[in-house]
Write a structure and sequence with these properties.
mainly beta
Length: about 80
């Protein structure tokens, strides 16, 4: 966290405790099917997709911009 940033625990406008970042997705994918209707492996479907996440954070409830700040998420233990 930069020296100009303050800790935000909720949206200052509405008090909601979740936020999001907007992003873009580009590329193409292959989705495999089986003729018998059973599921098949599509594990590499996202390998050729490019994701670019924006930096500005927005409130998930009122959608007001909250600013740009570093996000630390422990996705392994969630």
């Amino acid at each position: 966290m930069g020296k100009d940033q303050k800790l935000i625990e909720k949206c200052p406008a509405c008090g909601h405790d979740e936020f999001y970042r907007k992003g873009t997705v580009s590329g193409c994918y292959v989705y495999r099917y089986r003729f018998d209707g059973e599921e098949t492996y599509n594990g590499e479907m996202h390998d050729t997709i490019t994701y670019k996440e924006g930096k500005t954070c927005y409130c998930a409830e009122c959608h007001k911009p909250l600013g740009v700040f570093e996000i630390k998420v422990d996705r392994v233990n969630k």
